[in-house]
Amino acid sequence: MIHTPTFLGQNKPLNTCLIQIDSVTEARDLARNGAFEGCDAFAFQMEQIPLEDRTEKNIRMIFSQMGSRPIYVTNYRGHANKGAPDETLLEGLLELNRWGATLMDVMGDYYDPTPGELTMNPNAIARQKDAIARIHAEGGEVLMSSHVLKFTPAEEVLRIALEHQARGADISKIVTAANSDEEEVENIRITSLLKKELDIPFLFLSGGSHNQRHRLFGPMFGCVMWLSVPEHQRRSTKSQPLCRAVSDISRSFPW
Fold first, then answer.
1. CA 201 to each of CA 128, 164, 167, 214, 222: distance values in angstroms, whole numbers, following the listed order
2. Helix or strand or coil: residue 92?
3. Cα 17 from chain centroid?
4. Digits of tens for pLDDT over the chain (255 positions)?
5. Nearest Cα residue to 220 out of 242, 244, 188
6. Which of 11, 58, 115, 122 is most buried (most C-beta within 10 Å)?
7. What are the residue ranges of helices labelled H in the chain?
8. Sign of torsion, CA 145 167 4 24?
9. Cβ count near 63 (within 10 Å)
10. In angstroms, rounded to a whole number, what is the distance separating the alpha carbons of residues 90 and 111?
C-alpha cells in the first residue's frame, strides 16, 4: 500500500512541528529534532527563507528530514517575501507542493490585502477559488487562513470560517486573541461551536496575553492540529508549545 501523507480524515489531532528559521541548515536540523520529539506532522514557513536559498535541492533536503509525515507550508507576505505580489506567493506554494508539501496556506485576503485577512471583494474571491482549484488539481490540500489578531465574537469567527469553507478550502485557520481568562475561555467555547457548525476541519488559535490553555487544549475541543515547536529559538513564535509537551498530552488523552 502506498502511504499518502494527509491532514484530512485523521482519527486524532496532529502534533504539527513548526519550522520557523531563515537558514536552510538550521531548518534541516530543527526538522530532525522535531522528528525525534515525536511529532505527527510538520509545518514550514517558506517566507523565512532568503530568496536565493529557495532551490528545489534545499527545500527537498529539509523535507527529507520530515520522513513520510504530512507537511503544511506557508508563504506569507512578510520576511523575505516583503513586496512580492500575491500571484508570486501562490506560485511559491505550487512549487512547494511539487517538492513534497501536503497542505498549502492560501490567505483569506489573497489578491486584496485587508485588515483581518478576509477580503469580501468578488473579484479577489473568484481568484482565490481559482488558486485553490489549481492546488487541488496538482494533488495538494488547501488551508485558508485569516489572522485577525484581536479578540473576536463567536458569530464573527464562525462567519470567517464559513467563508473559508465556501471558497473551497479543506481546512479553515483563524487566529484571534485573548487578553483575559474570560476571553480565553470564550475562545475554547468558540472552538466547540466551530466543531458543531463547520463541514471542514479547522485550526482556531489565540494570540494575546492569554493563549496557552487554548493552544494546548483546543485540539481536545475540535481543532485539527496543534502547532508546536522543537525548541524556542530566535525566529520561533514564543506562544507555541514545545513539541515534546504536546506529544505527552496527545499520548495521555483517550482519543
1. 19, 11, 14, 17, 8
2. helix
3. 10
4. 346 899 999 999 999 999 999 999 999 999 999 999 999 999 999 999 999 999 999 999 999 999 999 999 999 999 999 999 999 999 999 999 999 999 999 999 999 999 999 999 999 999 999 999 999 999 999 999 999 999 999 999 999 999 999 999 999 999 999 999 999 999 999 999 999 999 999 999 999 999 999 999 999 999 999 999 998 888 888 889 999 999 999 988 888
5. 188
6. 58
7. 24-36, 56-64, 86-98, 122-137, 154-166, 181-197, 212-217, 243-252
8. negative
9. 21
10. 10
22 with 54: CB under 8 angstroms?
no
Do residues 16 and 225 lie in contact, with contact meaning Cβ atoms separated by under 8 Å? yes
Query: Residue 7: which of 55, 39, 50, 36 has the closest Cα?
Result: 39
CA 8 to chain centre: 13
3-state secondary structure of 147: strand
Task: Please list, in sequence order, all residues whose beta carbon lies within 8 angstroms of the beta carbon of residue 153, skipping any fewer than 6 positions away.
Answer: none
Cα–Cα distance, 188 to 44 (Å, whole number): 26
Is pTM, for the whole model, over 0.85? yes
> Please, what is the end-to-end C-alpha distance for the chain in angstroms?
25
Q: Comparing C-alpha atoms, which of 22, 7, 20, 12 is closest to residue 228?
A: 20
> CA angle at residue 92 from 108 to 18, to 5 degrees?
70
SS3 percent helix, strand, coil of the chain, rounded to 5, is: 45, 20, 40
